[in-house]
Write a structure and sequence with these properties.
Annexin_repeat; mainly alpha; two-stranded antiparallel ribbon; 2 strands; Annexin V, domain 1; 2 domains; Annexin_sf
Length: about 120
């Protein structure tokens, strides 16, 4: 067996050392996540945030924390840039998408976030 890596390989009936299938699948998933992170880091911050907002709205309730984080941690100038990028990328406003995708008790929080996005400071 390969020294120090025996948990990644197994020996088949022909005494060939091959990758363990679950390990290979796991590595592929990790490299895809790494690639996604690198792509996000190379994007302009406004475009990155706009794409993350759109993705969060598509996945709804499980990803609302992304929306909250972006709205609460960005300056008003950054939020204005995110609004411009979102409109440019998706031909819709963030406010319209928030209103159309969020229902129930989350709508109250959404209203507050929309008011932040529309505030005069931006």
């Amino acid at each position: 067996m390969r020294k120090g890596c025996s948990k990644f390989f197994y020996e088949d009936e022909r005494q060939f050392e091959r990758w363990d299938h679950t390990t290979l699948t796991s590595f592929k998933a990790e490299f895809k996540r790494f690639k996604d992170v690198v792509v996000l880091l190379l994007m302009h911050p406004w475009e990155r945030d706009a794409r993350l907002l759109k993705k969060a709205l598509k996945k709804s309730p499980q990803q609302y924390n992304v929306i909250v984080e972006i709205v609460c941690t960005r300056s008003s100038d950054q939020l204005l840039g995110v609004r411009k990028a979102y409109h440019s990328l998706f031909d819709q406003s963030i406010e319209e998408d928030l209103a159309s995708h969020i229902n129930g008790s989350e709508r109250k929080v959404s209203y507050h976030h929309t008011s932040i996005l529309n505030s005069d400071k931006i």
